[in-house]
């Protein structure tokens, strides 16, 4: 029974070359024998499908004639593999047909790859700041327990005053080459030498503080600059302030900001918003009130005559600092109605009623 190569890779017949390549990468990573898969048959199927659909000429012929297209994977007595698919053609040189699995397996299975520089672990912490500090910015110092570079040996792992010998495992290169065999040929990968942690050197005498590891866990003071205008839930990244690693670079420290609510102000984008209770008479006749800003200064705010209930007043340049300048202070007027009217006040209100107010 003819195979549906598109179905094997799980792609649509209109799939682009990039879609086909991505689908093959995913399946090859899952079913490759070097990855511990026991389904070698499935790996052969997806390899056969990719060899056809990744070649424009073969794909056009396959779309026209099906699996029996000229030059396709036809059955035969001399064919190797399953379904007549000859895998030996791939091991004999893909370049003749312009077909190369090298870029596919290079990053998936380690073929033709270079060892990456070791990098320490990223860590994250939570930091609570006041509403005012979040608006105007602040600097905080935290005591953090983490893996850091050993101060005595400065990360070398050797006792102070002693020398380092060349690692005999990697001959001083810090890298070890590993070659693995697969049905597609040999794949060579490069990894950091475990004996010297990729440094190429072995200490004659180990550092007594870190036992030769070059790093150790300790408490360290970290200075954190909280930028002005930061919002609740935002993250601050401190490069190479995470955990250290021997012969590599330290990871990053991520600080998640938690802003405590304010009794008077709240945030609305770049603006500060506050509620201001106003007496009924002041809203009808107008007045000037004193408002304390977030900075602690006194601001005189004029309430116009006959301002409507829940009217908004805007004071420019008194909001959240940002790249485009400061936002505004929005004052939301709340007209406070009296709980009880005196006889005189009641009479005055009744007179207003007669005037249609």
From TrEMBL:
CXXCXGXG motif repeats lie at residues 150-157, 167-174, 193-200, 207-214. A zinc finger (CR-type) spans 137-219. One of its GO terms (biological process) is response to heat. GO terms for cellular component: cytoplasm. SMART domains: DnaJ. Residues 4-66 form the J domain. Keywords: Chaperone, Cytoplasm, DNA replication, Metal-binding, Repeat, Stress response, Zinc, Zinc-finger. Its cofactor is Zn(2+). Zn(2+) 1 binds at residues 150, 153, 207, 210. It is found in: Cytoplasm. Coiled coil: none annotated. Pfam families: DnaJ, DnaJ_C, DnaJ_CXXCXGXG. Binds 2 Zn(2+) ions per monomer. GO terms for molecular function: ATP binding; heat shock protein binding; unfolded protein binding; zinc ion binding. Its main location: cytoplasm. It comes from the Bacteria. Residues 137-219 form the CR-type domain. Homodimer. NCBIfam families: DnaJ_bact, PRK10767.1. Participates actively in the response to hyperosmotic and heat shock by preventing the aggregation of stress-denatured proteins and by disaggregating proteins, also in an autonomous, DnaK-independent fashion. Unfolded proteins bind initially to DnaJ; upon interaction with the DnaJ-bound protein, DnaK hydrolyzes its bound ATP, resulting in the formation of a stable complex. GrpE releases ADP from DnaK; ATP binding to DnaK triggers the release of the substrate protein, thus completing the reaction cycle. Belongs to the DnaJ family. The J domain is necessary and sufficient to stimulate DnaK ATPase activity. Zinc center 1 plays an important role in the autonomous, DnaK-independent chaperone activity of DnaJ. Zinc center 2 is essential for interaction with DnaK and for DnaJ activity. This is Chaperone protein DnaJ. It comes from Candidatus Kaiserbacteria bacterium RIFCSPLOWO2_01_FULL_55_19. The lineage of its organism: Bacteria, Candidatus Kaiseribacteriota.
């Amino acid at each position: 029974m003819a195979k549906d190569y598109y179905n094997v890779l799980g792609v649509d017949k209109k799939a682009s070359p990039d879609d086909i390549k991505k689908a093959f990468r995913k399946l090859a990573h899952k079913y490759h024998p070097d990855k511990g898969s026991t389904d070698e048959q499935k790996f052969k199927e997806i390899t056969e499908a990719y060899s056809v659909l990744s070649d424009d000429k073969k794909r056009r012929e396959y779309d026209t004639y099906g699996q029996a297209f000229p030059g396709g994977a036809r059955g035969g007595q001399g064919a190797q593999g399953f379904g007549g698919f000859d895998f030996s053609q791939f091991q004999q040189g893909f370049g003749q047909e312009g077909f190369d699995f090298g870029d596919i397996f290079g990053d998936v299975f380690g073929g033709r790859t270079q060892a990456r520089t070791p990098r320490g672990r990223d860590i994250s912490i939570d930091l609570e700041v006041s509403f005012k500090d979040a608006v105007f910015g602040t600097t905080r110092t935290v005591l953090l327990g983490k893996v850091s570079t050993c101060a005595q040996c400065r990360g070398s792992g050797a006792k102070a005053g002693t020398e380092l010998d060349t690692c005999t495992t990697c001959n001083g290169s810090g890298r070890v080459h590993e070659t693995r065999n697969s049905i597609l040929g040999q794949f060579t990968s490069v990894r950091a030498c475990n004996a010297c942690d990729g440094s190429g050197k072995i200490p004659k005498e180990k550092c007594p503080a870190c036992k030769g590891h070059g790093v150790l866990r300790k408490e360290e003071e970290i200075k954190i600059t909280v930028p002005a205008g930061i919002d609740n839930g935002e993250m601050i990244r401190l490069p190479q302030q995470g955990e250290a690693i021997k012969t590599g670079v330290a990871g990053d420290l991520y600080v998640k900001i938690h802003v405590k609510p304010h009794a008077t102000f709240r945030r609305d984008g770049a603006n500060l918003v506050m509620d201001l209770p106003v007496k009924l008479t002041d809203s009808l006749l107008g007045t000037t009130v004193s408002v304390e800003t977030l900075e602690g200064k006194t601001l005189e705010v004029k309430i116009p005559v006959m301002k409507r209930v829940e009217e908004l007043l805007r004071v420019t340049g008194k909001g959240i600092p940002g790249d485009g300048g400061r936002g505004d202070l929005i004052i939301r007027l709340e007209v406070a109605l009296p709980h009880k009217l005196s006889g005189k006040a009641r009479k005055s209100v009744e007179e207003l009623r007669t005037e249609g107010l």
